[in-house]
Structure formats: C-alpha cells, structure tokens
C-alpha cells in the first residue's frame, strides 16, 4: 500500500509502505476512505514534535471501513463504516477510567501518526478498536465525519469546555484556522453575548463571521483595544488560543479579564513567556490540554442532526494519491484560502478484498 511518510524535518513523501497487520487481539484494520491533514501534522514536518520518528506514516484522523479485527474486538466487524478517533484508549488505566483518554498510560493516547503509523495511508491499524473507533450513521457524509476525529472534539473540549464558556460571556478566539473556527461554532452552543475572532488573514476572518463570530479583528491592528472597547475595559471572559506561537499566547493573557479563563489549544514548538508579574493578582485560570475525545459520541449525534457546520470548513478535496499536493495547499493557507482539505473516496462503497 502507499502512505505519507515523515523522513525528518522538512522531508516527507507519498510512497510504498508495508500493509498493516493485526498485532494485538484488540486491533482493527481500517481501509481509509477519507482523511484530512491537521495543523499538528505541519508542526511535525517542521520538527516541533521530536517524538515522531523518521519512517512514520503521518495522520490521526480518518473515516473508513473495517476490513479485519482481532479476536477480542466486540463492537465493530468487517464491513462497518467507522470514524477513527485521533485518540486511542486502553480503557483500563487510571486516566482512561477518569475519561482522560488523551493521557492514557496503557498504550493509547495520541499515538496514530505520532508513536505508530497513522491514517494518511490506504490502510491503518487501530489499537483498542472497541474504544477508538465509532460506528457512523449513514446520514453523516465522510467529508463531514472526518472533522469529528479531531478538530471538533479538540475545539469543544480543550477550548470551549476548558474555558468554561457561559451564557452572556465575551469570548475571544485568537486564530481563525480550522481549530479556531470549530471553537467559534461550538462556543455558540453556550449562548455567549459575543464572540470575537482574531487573525491576520482576511479570508479566515470572513470564515469566522460565517461560522458565528460577532466581531473580527486583524491581529496586527490592536485587538486588545477592540476587546477593551467591547467590554468597558474589563477584558474577555474567555480567551481561546488556537495558533500555537508565543506571540498569540501572550496576546491571550493580555486580553482576558480578571477572573477569566485562557484556554490554550495551540501546539507550541517554542517557549512562551508567562508574565506572572502581571497575572498573579488577576485570578486568571490558564488551561492546556490534549483532547480526550469523550465528547465524540455527542458531536456525532449533533452532526447527524445537522447541528454542526462541518461542511463549511472543507475548502479543498483531493484523491488520496494527491497527498503531497494537498499538503502543499494546506501549508500555504494564506495564499490558497485552505481551511480543511479532505482526501479520499467513499468508504461505504463496495471494495475489493485486501490481498493477504
């Protein structure tokens, strides 16, 4: 089969790789039908995630069809159409028992495209399949469902829930890429008074308006003053960081009100300065986090009911074998206008049996 392989910072290729095989009785093999590229994948290619070893197939989001399962798998079977979660969980360790699947110590957590081969391939091995894939209702299209593998649970859990968005809040979202846009869409579920999107790209700010932002601000034109003007100088109740660079994190800490919340979602590859000399007296709560995906079943039901604007985030589609072109388009989002790119066909169609 073919997969998109990381060979070191700045080096990657769509190339032949060995077919995955069942290694543990809890494994499933999934034929990938739709896959997407995450900003985290770009961080890996830049060298920001040193745990990823050269030779690893990238990707941690997919929709596909089960083609083989281990002897202990009970909840899915060959032929089932499933969502492959970005997080795998053993279900037995301390953190899994607390619903903190992203911190799994039993061989799970974020492992796909990180510690083991991932989803940007024709087939993928998914450990702990009973807990790490979700059966898909027929009403949810693959290009919509694949956005529920990572960006919607991440934005909802690490941004909106960790930030404790409440009715009547002023919410600022710094970064209007896919994660930030999904944070805007899911923050609206809690009826804040206003949502303000901050970004450098005009196209992304326009997308933020379409997805529910009440106001937008160019990051280069003093968004702190806009927030101050909108809140009588108090600051935002919740500020969500969705970029992952020191400047954006530090901006968030300047925009939050006393007693407010800063919810960091961005993947940081460099140190950021925490100005405790200013923050210690303000009762500010700062949260970080890796998504646990405990909300995925809820978000799937909402998507099936048409309550999530998933389709609005997909700007480009490609066949799976044009992975390198898709990466190029996604990495140049400022020029191409890319939000989410989706690759692949329709996993529920009848396919030939994989060669043994």
UniProtKB/TrEMBL annotation:
Record-linked SUPFAM superfamilies: GroES-like, NAD(P)-binding Rossmann-fold domains
| Keyword flag Zinc | yes
Q: Which cofactor does it need?
A: Zn(2+)
Task: List the PROSITE patterns hit by this protein, alphabetically.
Answer: ADH_ZINC (PS00059)
Show the Gene3D superfamilies listed in the entry. Medium-chain alcohol dehydrogenases, catalytic domain, NAD(P)-binding Rossmann-like Domain
Q: Where is the Enoyl reductase (ER) domain?
A: 8-343
Instruction: Provide the alphabetized UniProt keywords.
Output: Metal-binding, Oxidoreductase, Zinc
Pfam families xref list: ADH_N, ADH_zinc_N
Q: Which GO terms describe its molecular function?
A: oxidoreductase activity; zinc ion binding
Q: Which PANTHER family match?
A: NADP-DEPENDENT ISOPROPANOL DEHYDROGENASE (PTHR42813:SF4), ZINC-TYPE ALCOHOL DEHYDROGENASE-LIKE (PTHR42813)
The family classification in the record reads:
Belongs to the zinc-containing alcohol dehydrogenase family.
This protein is called what?
Answer: Alcohol dehydrogenase
Organism equals: Streptomyces griseoruber
């Amino acid at each position: 089969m073919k997969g998109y392989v990381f060979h070191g910072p700045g080096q990657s290729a769509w190339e032949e790789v060995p077919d995955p095989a069942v290694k543990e009785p809890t494994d499933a093999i999934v034929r990938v039908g739709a896959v997407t590229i995450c900003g985290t994948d770009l961080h890996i290619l830049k060298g920001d995630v040193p745990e990823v070893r050269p030779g690893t197939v990238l990707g941690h989001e997919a929709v596909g069809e089960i083609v083989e399962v281990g002897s202990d798998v009970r909840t899915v079977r060959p032929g089932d159409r499933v969502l492959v979660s970005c997080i795998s969980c053993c279900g037995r360790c301390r953190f899994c028992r607390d619903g903190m699947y992203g911190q799994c110590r039993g061989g799970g957590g974020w492992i796909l495209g990180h510690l083991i081969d991932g989803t940007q391939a024709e087939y993928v091995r998914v450990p702990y399949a009973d807990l790490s894939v979700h059966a898909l209702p027929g009403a949810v299209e693959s290009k919509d469902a694949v956005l529920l593998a990572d960006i919607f649970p991440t934005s909802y859990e690490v941004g909106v829930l960790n930030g404790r968005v409440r009715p009547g809040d002023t919410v600022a979202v710094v970064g209007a890429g896919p994660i930030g846009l999904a944070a805007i869409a899911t923050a609206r579920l809690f009826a804040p008074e206003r949502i303000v999107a901050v970004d450098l790209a005009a196209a992304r700010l326009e997308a933020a308006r379409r997805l529910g932002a009440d106001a937008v601000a160019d990051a280069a034109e003093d968004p702190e003053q806009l927030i101050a003007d909108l809140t009588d100088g108090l600051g935002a109740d919740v500020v969500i960081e969705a970029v992952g660079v020191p400047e954006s994190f530090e901006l968030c800490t300047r925009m939050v009100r006393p007693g407010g919340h800063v919810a960091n979602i961005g993947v940081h590859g460099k140190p950021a300065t925490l100005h405790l000399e200013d923050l210690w007296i303000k009762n500010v709560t700062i949260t970080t986090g890796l998504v646990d995906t405990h909300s995925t079943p809820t978000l799937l039901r909402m998507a099936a009911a048409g309550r999530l604007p998933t389709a609005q985030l997909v700007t480009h589609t490609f066949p799976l074998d044009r992975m390198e072109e898709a990466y190029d388009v996604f990495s140049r989002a400022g020029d191409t206008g890319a939000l989410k790119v989706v690759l692949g066909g329709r996993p529920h169609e009848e396919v030939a049996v994989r060669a043994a």
